[in-house]
Amino acid sequence: MNAPDRYESFILADDEKKVEVDPETRVPNAAMFTFNKEDHTLGNLLRAKLVKSQHVLFAGYQVPHPLFATFKLRVQTDGEVTPKEAVVAACKDLLGELHNLDQEFTKEFELKKISHRRTECY
């Protein structure tokens, strides 16, 4: 089988970084970020969050090969913020949204358990 071992899709090697940044030389205020051990899930979330930013002119990602858990994110800004600052801000926003989602889900789950217990008592 040509597929790599499953653990290779989420455990970083000793010499591997989670994110690598390469500045774009052809376009001003642009950079290419390579995310290792990540896939479309994070790539599309980041792209969607970045395009909503007022300082981001372009954000797109690509998965070079479907068997390897890596994607490349290209970001161009208007110069008010650097591409790295834009990506860091998008990550922080996503973490905040995921935290809110976790809280709401937990609250609704607990309410469902309480209402289920009440209906069993009757």
TrEMBL record:
<dbReference type="InterPro" id="IPR037685">
    <property type="entry name" value="RBP11"/>
</dbReference>
<dbReference type="InterPro" id="IPR008193">
    <property type="entry name" value="RNA_pol_Rpb11_13-16kDa_CS"/>
</dbReference>
<protein>
    <recommendedName>
        <fullName>DNA-directed RNA polymerase RBP11-like dimerisation domain-containing protein</fullName>
    </recommendedName>
</protein>
<keyword id="KW-0539">Nucleus</keyword>
<dbReference type="GO" id="GO:0006366">
    <property type="term" value="P:transcription by RNA polymerase II"/>
</dbReference>
<dbReference type="Pfam" id="PF13656">
    <property type="entry name" value="RNA_pol_L_2"/>
</dbReference>
<keyword id="KW-0804">Transcription</keyword>
<feature type="domain" description="DNA-directed RNA polymerase RBP11-like dimerisation">
    <location>
        <begin position="31"/>
        <end position="103"/>
    </location>
</feature>
<dbReference type="InterPro" id="IPR036603">
    <property type="entry name" value="RBP11-like"/>
</dbReference>
<dbReference type="InterPro" id="IPR022905">
    <property type="entry name" value="Rpo11-like"/>
</dbReference>
<dbReference type="GO" id="GO:0005665">
    <property type="term" value="C:RNA polymerase II, core complex"/>
</dbReference>
<dbReference type="GO" id="GO:0003899">
    <property type="term" value="F:DNA-directed RNA polymerase activity"/>
</dbReference>
<dbReference type="GO" id="GO:0003677">
    <property type="term" value="F:DNA binding"/>
</dbReference>
<keyword id="KW-0240">DNA-directed RNA polymerase</keyword>
<dbReference type="GO" id="GO:0046983">
    <property type="term" value="F:protein dimerization activity"/>
</dbReference>
<dbReference type="InterPro" id="IPR009025">
    <property type="entry name" value="RBP11-like_dimer"/>
</dbReference>
<comment type="similarity">
    <text>Belongs to the archaeal Rpo11/eukaryotic RPB11/RPC19 RNA polymerase subunit family.</text>
</comment>
